[in-house]
Amino acid sequence: MDLSREAAETVGLQAVAWLAGNDELLPVFLGATGASQEDFREGLQDPVFQGSVLDFLLMDDAWVMAFCETEGLRPQDPMAARMALPGGETVHWT
Question: Which Pfam families does the record associate with it (predicted)?
Fold first, then answer.
């Protein structure tokens, strides 16, 4: 399912907010990306940053499911949002 850019940014912002409230997973994200708490706050409205948060969440099905359950989303919504944000386009190598 394709999402509009606006809908994708909403899901991206939800993902950033969800991750910010997750005391166990936020330090893992910060450690994996090298981002600081300040970088995290500054990236809230940045679609590229939102995409990086979605990339991180999409690494683990349990994280996706926990996020979707909390936010009332379908399990396919984070991937659809990621594809609509900058850097999430399908790459055609041929």
Answer: DUF3572 (PF12096)
Whether 89 maps to a domain, the answer reads: no
pLDDT at 37 over 70: yes
What DSSP character marks residue 19? H
Give the largest Cα separation in the chain, rounded.
43
d(CA 92, CA 70): 34
Cα 19 from chain centre:
9
Backbone angles phi, psi at 24, to 5 degrees: -85, -40
| Mean pLDDT on 8-16 | 95
Give the closest residue to 48 by CA, choosing from 84, 91, 92, 1. 84
From 24-28, 30-34, 41-45, the region with the lowest mean pLDDT: 41-45
* Mean pLDDT confidence for 13-22: 95
Half-sphere exposure of 58 (CA within 13 A, CB side): 17
